[in-house]
Amino acid sequence: MKTNIHKNSRAMVLFIYLLAFALMTWSFGAQAEAPAKTKTSPNPVVVIATNMGNITVKLNSEKAAISTENFLKYIEKKHYDGTIFHRVMKDFMIQGGGHLPSMKEKETLAPIKNEAKNGLSNLRGTVAMARTNEVNSASSQFFINVVDNQRLDHVDDNRYGYAVFGEVIEGLDVVDKIRNVKTTTKGEHADVPEKVVLIKSVKLASASVEKLAKKNKGVK
Length: 220
Prior knowledge:
alpha+beta, two-stranded antiparallel ribbon
């Protein structure tokens, strides 16, 4: 009888040991998987909704952290809502984000550092920060390259270039619609669309669009 009790005790100890080992293994595995589950994309996706259709843009916070953060600040402030694409050059680019339909320029945040040295090129479909002749003068305005514009890339301090911070991943057909509108001159502004090209809103995209961003590796 004592022998059976002894055997049962040893079996119970072995069972508890194996159970503890299994729990430790499961816990370690769960902890190891946790980062993968909580990891988010470093490159936000935004949708520029216009009266001619939507343009989906993947931002590049890895190579253009300052420009991306700046752009997101303006989105959070709803700065772009109700602005226009005020400069359209069919064989160059379309520019917006700073003027109202009346051509009044909106107030902006402080200008940011130029990130044109980040290695990203002004190819068709890329989005870059607009600026004046002053290197570090970009604020809210941006432009979308409608053709390859490598001449806008950084060369040296005398040809500093324009900082690319994103790329169109959906809606390039909308960009082409905009580039083909008729333009005119309004006051001191040339290449202004005759009919307003309105930016209704710029918002962070949904998770479904985020998946689209991962699927698309670039603009052809």
